[in-house]
Q: What sequence folds into this?
């Protein structure tokens, strides 16, 4: 008996994590137009399974295709490639005073 088939792997950015054990990931691709030969940016949103709720909005993640987990979830988060900056952390940086200049 053979093992599991080849599963698709994608890299995207987390755009939502308000659900329990679920994150919404936006994946961008460049696709060439048939007639005009110009590259077009195509985006797709995927509901992904995040069992430990580790992802935050803005994180760059690697996702992999999996069996259906719920009605719309068919992808799982494999790893967090890069931590993103959230709006809260940017606001905190603005509130902190800069070094005094004499």
A:
């Amino acid at each position: 008996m053979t093992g599991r088939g080849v599963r698709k792997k994608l890299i995207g950015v987390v755009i939502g994590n308000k659900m329990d054990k679920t994150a919404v990931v936006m994946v961008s691709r460049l696709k060439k137009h048939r007639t005009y030969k110009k590259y077009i940016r195509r985006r797709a949103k995927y509901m992904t399974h995040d069992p430990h709720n580790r992802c935050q909005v803005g994180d760059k993640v690697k996702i992999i295709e999996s069996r259906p987990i719920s009605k719309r979830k068919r992808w799982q988060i494999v790893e967090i490639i890069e931590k993103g900056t959230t709006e809260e952390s940017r606001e905190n940086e603005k509130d902190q005073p800069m070094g005094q200049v004499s």
Summary: The CA atoms of residues 49 and 70 lie 9 Å apart. The longest helix spans residues 87-95. The mean pLDDT is 87. DSSP finds one helix and five strands in the chain.
